[in-house]
Amino acid sequence: MPSITEEVSIGDLGSLQTLPESFTWKLTGADSVLSPSSETVEESIPLIDLSDPDVTTLLGNACKTWGAFQIANHGISQKLLDDIESLSKTFFDMPSEKKLEAASSDKGVSGYGEPRISLFFKKKMWSEGFTIADGSYRNHFLSLWPHDFTKYCGIIEEYEGEMEKLASRLLCCILGSLGVTVDDIEWAYKAKNSGSKVGRRAIRLNHYPVCPEPERAIGLAAHTDSTILTILHQSNMGGLQVFREECGWVTVEPVPGALVVNIGDLFHILSNGKIPSVIHRARVNHNRSRISIAYLWGGPAGDVEIRPISKIVGPVGPSLYRPITWNEYLRIKYQVFDKALDAIRVVNPTN
Ligand SMILES: C=C1C[C@]23C[C@H]1CC[C@H]2[C@@]12CCC[C@@](C)(C(=O)O1)[C@H]2[C@@H]3C(=O)O
Ligand SMILES: O=C(O)CCC(=O)C(=O)O
Ligand SMILES: [Fe+2]
């Protein structure tokens, strides 16, 4: 019979002295490579200076080999990074009941709660988070911080604006490494001309409280992001790991001022599999809590279809994935999770 102590609110994880059964992950067995404490190796993802004259080649290589890299000289001010980090801290430091008042509703994506992928796992993840996906976060902010409402919304808006610019710039450079430009993408062209300026994006504020048994727990289980690319600001505490077929789990050591970029599933589709999405996860820590802020970018335009770029596919094809909008992809992802790319693969590609 489940004991009453098993009913744990994610808002209070940091105060627990022992790891509840529902948060204890299996370490051995067939799926051990995906288990939290499987071997890690002494490798590291590249650190790329965006002002380097060879930036296109460097980004291209990093994407093909790793699917993830860190960037320096990215143009985002340290003040803005500090501001959004302290906004996050202010939120997560609130009492559990207060945080739950900002819980995301059944329909809405914005708000407080477990990571969306948690529905695919039997065990619980050692983290809590706040998702900002549409304007409804403003209602939560208004009731959480009536006095600082304008200031906090301002930080989010500035962050979104700056990250959007950086994400577009990275997309251009990475496409450049494949010999194409944004103008080769049908949707980018449509977006420019239709006046639909609202791109698809979400910000996720993640908090990983201190954990009594980090070896047996996981902060965020292995996944790929359903994005073109994700820009992650991790505080000076590490925890992010990326998976590479050849070597296993690789820890991304924080570099002061640098941001982490990971390639998501939509880039995988756009590049016809040439720039694959990267599996990653977050470990937790015994001594210090950790905050990370993910900017999940789905491209510049809303309801347009994303498809393999014809110049990449080439005249003789084959195009491996069918055209799909971000909303449609998210729907499939949250039905079949890690089989989502397979689910939209063309069965008998001709060209
Ligand atoms: C716009 C998005 C992208 C989502 C779903 C939706 C809102 C929240 C995003 C995240 C944020 C945390 C990791 C992830 C894997 C999750 O669980 O929720 C992301 C997911 C995805 O990339 O699929
Ligand atoms: O916290 C991290 O390091 C990873 C977060 C992440 O993967 C996500 O928000 O999608
Ligand atoms: Fe992620």
UniProtKB/TrEMBL annotation:
<dbReference type="GO" id="GO:0046872">
    <property type="term" value="F:metal ion binding"/>
</dbReference>
<dbReference type="Pfam" id="PF14226">
    <property type="entry name" value="DIOX_N"/>
</dbReference>
<comment type="pathway">
    <text>Plant hormone biosynthesis; gibberellin biosynthesis.</text>
</comment>
<comment type="similarity">
    <text>Belongs to the iron/ascorbate-dependent oxidoreductase family. GA3OX subfamily.</text>
</comment>
<dbReference type="InterPro" id="IPR005123">
    <property type="entry name" value="Oxoglu/Fe-dep_dioxygenase_dom"/>
</dbReference>
<dbReference type="InterPro" id="IPR026992">
    <property type="entry name" value="DIOX_N"/>
</dbReference>
<keyword id="KW-0560">Oxidoreductase</keyword>
<protein>
    <recommendedName>
        <fullName>gibberellin 3beta-dioxygenase</fullName>
        <ecNumber>1.14.11.15</ecNumber>
    </recommendedName>
</protein>
<dbReference type="GO" id="GO:0009686">
    <property type="term" value="P:gibberellin biosynthetic process"/>
</dbReference>
<keyword id="KW-0408">Iron</keyword>
<feature type="domain" description="Fe2OG dioxygenase">
    <location>
        <begin position="199"/>
        <end position="299"/>
    </location>
</feature>
<dbReference type="InterPro" id="IPR027443">
    <property type="entry name" value="IPNS-like_sf"/>
</dbReference>
<comment type="pathway">
    <text>Hormone biosynthesis.</text>
</comment>
<dbReference type="InterPro" id="IPR044861">
    <property type="entry name" value="IPNS-like_FE2OG_OXY"/>
</dbReference>
<keyword id="KW-0223">Dioxygenase</keyword>
<dbReference type="InterPro" id="IPR050231">
    <property type="entry name" value="Iron_ascorbate_oxido_reductase"/>
</dbReference>
<dbReference type="GO" id="GO:0016707">
    <property type="term" value="F:gibberellin 3-beta-dioxygenase activity"/>
</dbReference>
<dbReference type="Pfam" id="PF03171">
    <property type="entry name" value="2OG-FeII_Oxy"/>
</dbReference>
<keyword id="KW-0479">Metal-binding</keyword>
